[in-house]
Amino acid sequence: MPPTARERVRAELTAEITAAARRQLAEVGAAALSLRAVARELGMASSALYRYFPSRDDLLTRLIIDGYDALGAAAEAADDPAAPPRERWLAVCRAVRAWAREHPHEYALLYGSPVPGYAAPRDTVPAASRVGVALGRVLGDAARAGALPDTDGERDPGLVSEEAVAVLGGEHPALDEAVRVRALLAWSALYGTLSFELFGHFAGSVQDADRYFDRAMGELAGLIGL
Amino acid sequence: MPPTARERVRAELTAEITAAARRQLAEVGAAALSLRAVARELGMASSALYRYFPSRDDLLTRLIIDGYDALGAAAEAADDPAAPPRERWLAVCRAVRAWAREHPHEYALLYGSPVPGYAAPRDTVPAASRVGVALGRVLGDAARAGALPDTDGERDPGLVSEEAVAVLGGEHPALDEAVRVRALLAWSALYGTLSFELFGHFAGSVQDADRYFDRAMGELAGLIGL
DNA sequence: TCGATGTGAGAGCAGTGCTCTCTGTCGAGA
DNA sequence: TCTCGACAGAGAGCACTGCTCTCACATCGA
């Protein structure tokens, strides 16, 4: 059956709340996100918000999932399956960086310190893995196309879990443990680089952030074998 | 002249405050660190704390500097100048990880999302660079000992700043732009790996965190040429 | 000894997340 | 068509936060 009028207006208001919260998030950051301020912006009593989100943490969860989804969508959109693997890897990395620079507070919410007393619920996992899946697709396609150089078949099983294997390109002879570990390392290095840039840890070390990022991601591509 | 009795008791109480704050930090995290709770623990009025720290942010700054110093000291203590470069690199990385795992909240305070509305003052910079300096010493010693393989002398000046060059081993023919960029990348990759581990982003991907970390840091050492 | 300085306490302000109660409205079933 | 129950919003209130101000007291140097 179609949604009733009440359900429609409820969905609308829910969307308005998350939109206002996202706006506030971009302005003051997650830690300073205030339910009352959101209510003020919408011209309603703070207590009324609790009809839509049982707690501030639930509102944060909504924002986290939305953030992961937006970031994942940006990464997927930047991936051109027809391009050479190395270019695909660089394109996805650049897209992640572009999104992070456009939404620094959301990035911090996703990849910065966890909010104390708040544990991300299971619902966030699928959205959170989208970027990893996108990178894994590049890896898997490269392996299937024979674009990954043969390794010495190094074996060190038990380092990377089954789930990660599935994400990181699936089973393929060219994707041995060594390649997967490097891919995982490159993945976290991407976020290490971004965090350092956005959180100001490069301080004066890096002159031209754009060029440094491209060089760094190129090094990582080389490390994986792309 | 010797410190007066007043100065002595003042210094003592200041130390007690930071100790209580650090204890609270370890329990509830930076975002939930409450001045009033610290005061309660010390059995004094919250307003009295403001005689010692003009604001909560100043107390946080103190904790941040102390944290950087403790982390830096751990890194320096783990470095044995007589060991081979690769072992030195791994030892420092392991020490950083060990400290981070023992003080996750402090690590999050140092390398997680910046506290909104709070800009780290200049005073934190020297303490913050200690780990970088320790890693840079390993790199410089390796270069001077001829332990770094010759690169193709790739030149891409302007990527890494003068200050970073000074930290990353100083001037040496074996330390060209390529090596420095890789060192910087490895440095941020170390923190990317730690953040992923501590903030739970590896989720189910990594089975044995200890072994994975060693492998990953080994890959980074190889990337630099150690 | 006296005045300047440092110190702590208490009250109070504006803000927070959250709960509870009360009122009004809307819509589906009798 | 009427009624009753589910739902939505408002307001007051609780316990908490960082921070400021004033007031009383202790200490210490001239």
From TrEMBL, chains A, B:
Keyword presence, Transferase: no
DNA bind region: 34-53
SUPFAM superfamilies: Homeodomain-like, Tetracyclin repressor-like, C-terminal domain
Ranges where the HTH tetR-type domain occurs: 11-71
Keywords: DNA-binding, Transcription, Transcription regulation
Pfam families referenced in this protein's UniProt entry, alphabetically: TetR_C_33, TetR_N
Listed GO MF terms: DNA-binding transcription factor activity; transcription cis-regulatory region binding
Protein name, as recorded: Transcriptional regulator, TetR family
